[in-house]
Amino acid sequence: MTKADIVNEISKNTGIEKITVQKTVEAFMDTIKGSLVKGKNVYLRGFGSFIVKKRAEKTARNISKNTTIIIPEHFIPAFKPAKTFVSKVKTNVK
C-alpha cells in the first residue's frame, strides 16, 4: 500500500476531500520525522512506537579494495509495533 492508496482509503471512508487528507497525512509524517530528528520518540498507543536507536561502532570490510573500515556509532529511526497490533497480524495473516 502506497501513500496515495492510504489517502484514497481515508478519503473514501471519511468523505473528506483527498487534498485535505493528503495534507493531513503529509503533516503527520513531517511531525514524526521532525520529532525523530530531534531525538524524541513518538508513541501511538495500540499501533506502535517510532523510536531512535543507537547503533554501536563496528568494523566492516570494503570488498572491492580489500580494506577494513570503521563505521562510527550512529542513530537510526526504527518502528516497534504494539503487542496488540502484532497479535492481530499474527492471527489474521495466513
Quick structural gist:
This protein is about 45% helix and about 30% strand. It is α+β, with helices and mostly antiparallel strands and about 90 residues long.
What does this structure look like?
By secondary structure, the chain is α+β, with helices and mostly antiparallel strands. The chain has three helices and five strands. A hairpin with a 4-residue loop joins β3 (58-62) and β4. α1 (3-14) packs across α2 (18-37). 1% of the residues are buried. Pfam families: Bac_DNA_binding.
Mean pLDDT, to the nearest integer, reads 95
Encode the helix/strand succession as letters. Answer: HHEEEEEH
- The CATH architecture designation is Irregular
Bin the helical content.
40-55%
Radius of gyration: 19 Å
* Domains, number: 1
CATH class, named Few Secondary Structures
Task: Return the CATH topology.
Answer: HU Protein, Chain A
The count of β-strands is 5
Q: What structural class do the secondary elements suggest? A: alpha+beta
**Distance linking N and C termini:** 18 Å
Identify low-pLDDT runs: none
Tally of contiguous helical segments: 3
Coarse shape: elongated
Strand content: 25-35%
User: Can you summarize the main beta sheet?
Assistant: 3 strands, antiparallel
Oligomer: single chain
In the sheet with the most strands, the strands line up as: 1-2-5
Report the CATH superfamily: IHF-like DNA-binding proteins
InterPro entries: Hist_DNA-bd (IPR000119), IHF-like_DNA-bd_dom_sf (IPR010992)
Keywords: DNA condensation, DNA-binding
Pfam families: Bac_DNA_binding
Protein name: Integration host factor subunit beta
